[in-house]
Design a protein that fits this description.
It is built from 8 helices and no strands. By secondary structure, the chain is an all-alpha fold.
Length: 239
């Protein structure tokens, strides 16, 4: 609605932009999950992602606040609308990209970071209960109260409330950073999978050996569940 009313973008184009953003919010958490597990840990990723998301919300607030960042509204009685300039579109896309990347980074790390603060399974169950309750409550508020404010008051006020909420949550989270249990990165299975795929692709012409000693990771001979020699299933990965 913001794209149609404020940027004079056609409904089809606005729907495409919305679908791209929603698609990125679905796919990016799979990619960003590798970063905390393999390199930095959950707490630094949450801090940086929350800050990136805050920058995006602030930029959206500025877009809604200054007339130079949006096209001129359609004159009364006119059927022609001013199209947004390239600069205005770039600023809009930058804001959407920041919000998308920041949201994806926090979404994938918050739950695991919270679980790392407790040792007892019961406490972790309570944490996840409140976590999902809070996430759903936030979604309801954003889909009702914020949308109502943007439709009946102004886009500036609606985005300002979102920016204020993001600012408060960011400050609260960063303020307690020294009290958190910082788990060291343990490695990600996605990273190992990518390494295997790259190695198998680069050695696609190699001949697969059937000798046990030719493999760098050999299972024990006394194991009854697995065979020492790689099986024929997905044999191209044995390279």
């Amino acid at each position: 609605v913001f794209l149609i009313e404020e940027f004079n973008i056609k409904s089809i184009a606005a729907a495409q932009i919305s679908n791209i953003v929603n698609g990125c919010l679905t796919i990016l958490p799979v990619v960003t999950a590798i970063i905390p597990d393999s390199f930095f840990g959950n707490i630094p990723v949450i801090s940086s992602s929350a800050f990136i998301s805050l920058l995006g919300i602030v930029l959206l607030t500025l877009i809604a606040s200054f007339d130079k960042l949006i096209p001129q509204p359609r004159e009364t009685g006119s059927i022609l609308c001013e199209s947004p300039s390239k600069l205005q579109l770039w600023i809009l896309y930058a804001a959407l990209a920041l919000v998308t990347v920041g949201t994806a980074g926090t979404r994938v790390s918050l739950g695991s970071a919270g679980a790392n603060q407790y040792e007892r399974p019961k406490h972790k169950e309570i944490l996840f209960t409140w976590y999902f309750l809070t996430v759903n409550a936030g979604a309801i508020v954003s889909a009702t109260a914020i949308v109502y404010t943007q439709d009946n008051a102004s886009w500036k006020l609606g985005f300002s409330l979102c920016a204020a909420a993001n600012m408060i949550s960011f400050i609260v989270f960063v303020s307690g950073k020294r009290f958190y249990n910082h788990e060291k990165p343990m490695g990600s299975p996605f990273r190992s999978l990518i390494c295997v795929l790259v190695a198998a692709t680069s050695k696609i012409m190699a001949v697969v050996s059937s000798k046990e000693e030719d493999y760098h990771r050999v299972l024990g001979r006394e194991s009854k569940s697995f065979t020492a020699i790689p099986s024929n299933s997905f044999r191209f990965l044995n390279r």
